[in-house]
Design brief:
The chain is α+β, with helices and mostly antiparallel strands and 329 residues long. Helix content is 16%, strand content 43%. The strands form two sheets. The protein has a twelve-stranded mixed β-sheet, with helices on one face. Strands 12-13-14-19-18-17-16 form a seven-stranded antiparallel β-sheet, with helices on one face.
């Protein structure tokens, strides 16, 4: 009888202890959600993105103001090239202030994909995962959840590191082999931030324009290092355009596509180009990704990859294989 009673007591204690652990995890997530549910915030940090053997480093500033105003500044640490992802009541924009140029999207960004540099989307991923992982250490807490990078199926989960005060310190995004693909390090978060009226406006973010920049020629043609199987370069054409030169590379075969490279310079008037698709980071810069194309600007050259056959994963593979080192004339 004593043995039976002891066994029942042991099972009861195990259930109670496991229940307490689960409740603690839920309470922490609940308190974290409450902490970031504010009228406005401003944060800064460092973002690292790994692409095969390449690694891109960014200084990040992210801001939010109720309701639904977002501003994310990504500055490439190699060339100081800054781009801004902006959301306000008029739409979603990718801005390149140095060129006085912007892409405009009708998009559900940022809530339609995971974003490691925005508090709302990090919390959204944690809440959406029914099998959320949780552990506690001397420094704080670690959540492990699935992620939603629809255009990059290699990104499958994230680890969110919190201190004891429930401040997010780091978000690491991993592939299915647990290899880091992205790391966002949070330096500081201001939950009582205030902003000027122009902070989330298009014109208010386009003040760093040098219209005296002259257009340049394409010194070298840059070819994609990745080409789908049974596909080959069938044509190459260089033509003069108003702002410099344009190169068109045509690939035929089982997976035909085109690569267009064109020199650009800043415009005197703000140029806004309507786009179908989503903002996306490509080869160290923020571009635009749709079902049939991807476009981005790098070092004064606009790149455009388009295909009626390739899916978005293949489009991104081609785009990310176009580096900055010239391989042809």
């Amino acid at each position: 009888m004593k043995k039976i009673f002891a066994s029942i007591l042991f099972v009861f204690m195990v259930i109670m202890l496991s229940g307490c652990g689960s409740k603690g995890e839920k309470d922490i997530l609940k308190n974290l959600s409450k902490k970031v549910d504010v009228e406005a915030y401003y944060l800064d940090g460092k973002l690292e993105i790994v692409n095969n053997e390449d690694s891109y480093q960014y200084d990040v500033e992210a801001a939010y103001k109720s309701k639904n105003n977002f501003r994310v500044s990504l500055k490439n640490k190699v060339n100081n090239h800054e781009q801004i992802i902006l959301k306000n009541e008029e739409g979603v924009y990718v801005l390149t202030p140095s060129l006085n140029k912007s892409f405009k999207f009708q998009s559900e960004w940022p809530y339609n994909n995971s974003q490691s540099y925005l508090l709302q989307t990090v919390i959204q991923d944690l809440k959406n995962d029914e099998n959320l992982g949780f552990e506690e250490n001397n420094d704080g807490y670690i959540f492990t959840s699935t992620v939603n990078y629809a255009n990059n199926p290699n990104l499958v989960k994230q680890k969110v590191y919190l201190d004891k005060d429930l401040n997010i310190k780091e978000v690491i995004v991993l592939n299915n082999e647990d290899v880091m693909q992205m790391k966002m390090t949070y330096n500081s978060i201001d939950y009582k931030a205030t902003f000027d009226d122009s902070y989330f406006t298009l014109k208010g973010n386009m003040s760093n324009v040098d219209t005296n920049t002259t257009s340049k020629s394409l010194d070298s043609i840059i070819y994609p290092m990745y080409v789908p199987a049974n596909t080959y370069l069938s044509g190459q054409e260089k033509v003069m355009v108003e702002d410099g030169e344009r190169v068109i590379l045509t690939f035929n075969g089982d997976s035909p596509f085109m690569v267009i490279q064109e020199t650009i310079k800043p415009t005197e008037e703000l140029l806004t180009i309507p786009m179908y698709g989503e903002p996306y980071i490509v080869t160290g810069t923020v571009g635009a990704l749709s079902d049939s194309s991807v476009t981005w600007v790098n070092n004064g050259v606009e790149f455009y990859v388009v295909s009626d056959v390739l899916n978005t994963n293949d489009l991104l593979q081609v785009a990310n294989s176009i580096g900055t080192l010239p391989v042809g004339k």
